[in-house]
Structure to design on (439 residues):
């Protein structure tokens, strides 16, 4: 197992029934799930997944898809009929019960749908329970539980009983208990499905914040596609016991592997899933500040656009130039392009979701510039590309302009004339025309 992987399942099957091994053999030979009469019920069929350390990996599927059985295979509550599961490099299939308990105690914590809190224990004692099982001293358990209690926003509630807390607060206690155990992997089985929508969204956001600060590996089970898209770094979609597609939310939304996945994602709010990085295009109307005004004007002439983005050393975005300003520089014989660079370019991050791009796009005549943390230009998003992405229109069926603004205010012929008048020996002017200019 790779050092970058926290959980790995290889060709895992789980069949409940009289003849599970025979059922697996039939499935491997191509039998359908419905063709196992008398042999058993196949809950998980040939499932393989690799969960990287520090990511939120979501397993999504409708009721009966096999996702809850799969998570029980990942934590060792069920033994696979065939296949192998490893957690932090250690096998949990085919090992003695004592060894399995040790691996689970050190590496795996669970967060359940219905909280599973101990009703007679205080909030603080519930949080410390996993450490108690691990044999930690009482003082250490209390200190760690108090620390995690603050982390999940329940400071001051440690002496309360679970019955005194709201559903959302009880689920925070469940998450805190898993965090207090300080295991590498958190398995969350429909952890937020019992909460009302507002509290559910709040818990989703807090989970992302906790994961970002603590770097835990989380395997999250859900039947809610919007929840999967919001939480998941990657998503595995299950149907009838099989994983039919694994990918990032953007990949699943823009390139569904099957008609089933396509129908599943058709009603997803694309504006809150797709990011700038997923729809950006290479910048064509692009010049370097070192190239000077003449190079900028040639680029705009060739692309038939009235503006261009300007980058400096290391592709750092400096701003944009307009055709009329550059032409004036050429006429006056000025060579410093930086004199006419304008800083009114709308800049966005690669991780900004599309819903955050609409307002800056509407207010900008130029495409949105996508930059990284060092202001290096990564790509651009023309307004028409943004609208196509929001409307789920394939850009392959429409022409995407580089600059979304009215046509160039100065005809291309006029730009060529300026080039000829200011530098008849320019290599951009054909030899015959250079002779005509001299004449």
């Amino acid at each position: 197992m790779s050092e970058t992987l926290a959980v790995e399942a290889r060709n895992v099957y789980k069949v409940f029934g009289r003849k599970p091994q025979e059922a697996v053999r039939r499935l491997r030979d191509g039998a359908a799930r419905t063709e196992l009469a008398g042999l058993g019920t196949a809950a998980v069929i040939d499932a393989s997944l690799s969960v990287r350390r520090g990511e939120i990996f979501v397993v999504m599927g409708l009721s009966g898809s096999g996702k809850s059985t799969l998570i029980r295979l990942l934590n060792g509550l069920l033994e696979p009929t065939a296949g192998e599961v490893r957690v932090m490099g250690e096998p949990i299939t085919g090992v003695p019960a004592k060894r399995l308990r040790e691996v689970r105690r050190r590496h795996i914590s669970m967060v359940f749908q219905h909280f599973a809190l101990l009703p007679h224990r205080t909030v603080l004692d519930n949080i410390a329970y996993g450490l108690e099982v691990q044999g930690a001293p009482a003082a250490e358990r209390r200190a760690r539980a108090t620390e995690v209690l603050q982390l999940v926003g329940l400071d001051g509630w440690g002496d309360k009983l679970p019955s005194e807390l709201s559903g959302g607060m009880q689920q925070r206690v469940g998450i805190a208990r898993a965090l207090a155990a300080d295991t590498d992997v958190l398995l969350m089985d429909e952890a937020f499905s019992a909460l009302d929508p507002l509290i559910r969204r709040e818990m989703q956001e807090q989970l992302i914040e906790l994961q970002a600060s603590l770097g835990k590996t989380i395997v999250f089970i859900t039947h809610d596609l919007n929840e999967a898209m919001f939480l998941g770094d990657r998503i595995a979609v299950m149907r009838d016991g099989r994983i039919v597609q694994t990918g990032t939310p953007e990949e699943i939304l823009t390139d569904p592997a099957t008609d089933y996945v396509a129908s599943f994602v058709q009603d997803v709010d694309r504006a809150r899933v797709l990011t700038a990085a997923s729809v950006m295009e290479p910048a064509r109307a692009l010049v370097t500040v070192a190239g000077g005004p003449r190079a900028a004007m040639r680029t705009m002439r060739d692309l038939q656009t009235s503006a261009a983005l300007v980058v400096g050393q290391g592709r750092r975005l400096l701003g944009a130039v307009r055709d009329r300003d550059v032409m004036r520089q050429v006429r006056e014989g000025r060579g410093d392009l930086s004199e006419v660079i304008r800083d009114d370019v709308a800049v966005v991050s690669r991780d900004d979701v599309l819903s955050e791009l609409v307002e800056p796009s509407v207010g900008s005549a130029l495409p949105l510039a996508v930059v990284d943390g060092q202001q290096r230009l990564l790509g651009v998003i023309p307004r028409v590309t943004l609208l196509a992405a929001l409307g789920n229109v394939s850009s392959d069926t429409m022409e995407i302009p580089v600059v979304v603004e009215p046509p160039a205010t100065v005809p291309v012929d006029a730009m060529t004339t300026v080039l000829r008048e200011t530098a008849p020996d320019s290599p951009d002017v054909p030899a015959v025309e250079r002779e005509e200019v001299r004449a």
